[in-house]
């Protein structure tokens, strides 16, 4: 049985993430743990935050939060597409990262799934300080579901890499599991800033991916001399990418993709879910 943890503040963004999870895992039995943090102990929000656990919807007593969790579970039980989907309510009075870490250990969580509201009002931040904190500090595969993401049959999963890291078991297994669950093709994308050949180590790492995924439909691509965000946008549109996977260890790439300011022509952070893989 797979275990999925979904932090919720009872907002539409959280509800959208839960709906996405029900569709994504429709073919397999899953324990869904809905986690709510009391607002008085959540991380402080600022103008760049996605306001997770700081919305008016989450105000109230602990008992009120528990009641809301139960109502949310009843609602999503009706939407579940698999009789093996089970739902559990969790209420915590601690900081968000601490609460998530606690539940990962206690419930043997396979994935954390977080809904986000996309860009902030002043367009300086893509997914908010809370999600950023979880991505960098919680060592578990994390789905980031933008507010405009709607589940559709996942045909192509893009794996963004610079080929500079040795792919550990947790990364490979996380990526492989996503491909198998969705019966999707893997599109490996290397974006390089200048016209240089791969080093021997990079070539070896690329060869490892080719060997490991030999039984899965896959292809290798590269874009050079392009802005990373624009390159990813072009690739998403050209190859009809439904999910973007990236290794969290590559902090520079993750920052560029998710946290930098972008222009209006870049839409993928609002529409395409990300899968953040940890070593």
TrEMBL record:
Gene3D superfamilies: 3.40.50.12370. SUPFAM superfamilies: Adenine nucleotide alpha hydrolases-like. Pfam families: Usp. Residues 2-146 form the UspA domain. It comes from the Bacteria. InterPro entries: Universal_stress_UspA, UspA. CDD domains: USP-like (cd00293). Belongs to the universal stress protein A family. This is Universal stress protein. It comes from Aequorivita flava.
């Amino acid at each position: 049985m797979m275990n999925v943890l979904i932090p919720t503040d009872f907002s539409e963004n959280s509800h959208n993430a839960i709906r996405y999870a029900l569709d994504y895992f429709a073919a397999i039995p899953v324990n869904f743990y809905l986690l709510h943090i009391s607002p008085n102990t959540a991380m402080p929000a600022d103008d760049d935050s996605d306001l997770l656990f700081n919305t008016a919807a989450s105000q109230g007593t602990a008992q009120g939060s528990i009641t809301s969790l139960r109502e949310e579970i009843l609602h999503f039980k009706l939407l579940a597409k698999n009789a093996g989907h089970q739902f559990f309510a969790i209420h915590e009075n601690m900081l968000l990262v601490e609460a998530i870490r606690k539940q990962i250990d206690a419930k043997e969580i396979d994935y954390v799934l977080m809904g986000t509201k996309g860009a902030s009002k002043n367009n300086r931040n893509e997914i908010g300080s809370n999600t950023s904190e979880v991505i960098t500090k919680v060592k578990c595969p994390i789905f980031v579901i933008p507010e405009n993401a709607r589940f559709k049959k996942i045909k192509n999963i893009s794996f963004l890499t610079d080929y500079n890291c040795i792919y550990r078991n947790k990364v490979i297994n996380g990526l492989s599991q996503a491909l198998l669950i969705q019966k999707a093709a893997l599109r490996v994308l290397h974006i390089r800033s200048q016209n240089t050949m791969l080093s021997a180590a990079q070539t070896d790492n690329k060869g490892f991916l080719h060997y490991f995924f030999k039984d899965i439909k896959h292809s290798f691509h590269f874009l050079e001399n392009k802005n990373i965000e624009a390159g990813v946008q072009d690739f998403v549109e050209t190859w009809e990418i439904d999910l973007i996977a990236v290794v969290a260890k590559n902090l520079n790439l993750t920052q560029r993709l998710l946290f930098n300011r972008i222009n209006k022509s870049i839409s993928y952070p609002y529409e395409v879910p990300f899968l953040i893989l940890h070593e």
